[in-house]
Amino acid sequence: MKRKHGSLGSFLAGAVTMLLLMGLVTGALATNAQKSATLYYSDIKVCLDGKVLKLADATGAEVEPFTISGTTYLPVRAISEALGLDVEWNGSSHTVYLTTKPGGSVDVAGERVSMGTLKAYSFSHKDDDGSANFDSTSSFTNRQTVYHPENRLYMAAGSGVLGWTKLKVPSTMSVTYLVNKEYKAFTAYAAAIDGRGDATFRFYDADTNIKLGEVKVEAGAAPVQVNIDLTGVDKLRISATTYSVQIGQSVYHRAYANGALYNAYLVK
């Protein structure tokens, strides 16, 4: 059989396809997309940097690659773990989540500056103390796991703004940093916070309003890596969707970023 070479993204896409096709691997298929296929097993081995991988499922049981109509399919969990990725199957949405191992900083080469040492250039909504910065290290929960970040973006608005009702709470808030075209990348992790639903973060060149990137983290999903190219960017604007709570028994509400953007750095 002829070996095909491709990018890591294409390689993982094939592995994901296999996972979606095999009921015996995932235990779930889209109800309107079941197909029959003949699987061919021929003792296929996978080598990573010259080392033969031991391919196993979540229970440790050995799994074997196979071919269908000349295409080779690999077990997504075994391959992802060999590459240092977390893998999770969401049966309700029929989605495979591949993420870098959460908890640390994204590995981007270069001198790093913690976002916790910077002050905001401007922000869209002002709280009592004017806070909108990576100045928080407060813990948060994601999938009932407690995270203790090195830094975390704090955004809040509404506690002192008279006349706010729930209908007037902003759906997004933003903060802008002056980066002076000195950095090549922004790196961080993004997570949904238990009980606050999906979270979306967007990144813009504030001078041109060009969107540099976006990450959406579904409720119940693992944290995901963020890596934004800052080449030529003078001002970086970060926006976040909000979650609101009522202030006491009043009609006033306070809005927070509904996800956690944390362990964030600028890279020179």
Explain what the structure shows.
- With 268 residues, this protein is mostly beta strands.
- It folds into two domains: 8-100, no CATH class; 112-267, Jelly Rolls.
- The chain has three helices and 20 strands.
- Strands 8, 9, 12, 13, 15, 16, 18 and 19 form an eight-stranded antiparallel beta sheet that branches.
- The longest helix has 14 residues, at 8-21.
- The model is unreliable at 1-30 (pLDDT under 50).
Output the number of helix runs: 3
Mean pLDDT: 79
Portion in helices: under 10%
Domains, number: 2
Q: Give the terminus-to-terminus CA distance.
A: 45 Å
Which blocks of ≥5 consecutive residues have pLDDT under 50?
1-30
Q: Could you tell me the CATH topology label of the largest domain.
A: Jelly Rolls
CATH level 1 name of the largest domain: Mainly Beta
**What's the number of extended β-strand segments?**
20
The shape is globular
What is the CA-atom radius of gyration, in angstroms? 22 Å
How would you sum up the major sheet? Answer: 8 strands, antiparallel
Question: What is the H/E string?
Answer: HHEEEEHEEEEEEEEEEEEEEEE
Structural class, please?
A: mainly beta
Taken as a percent bin, the fraction of beta residues is 35-45%
CATH architectural group of the largest domain: Sandwich
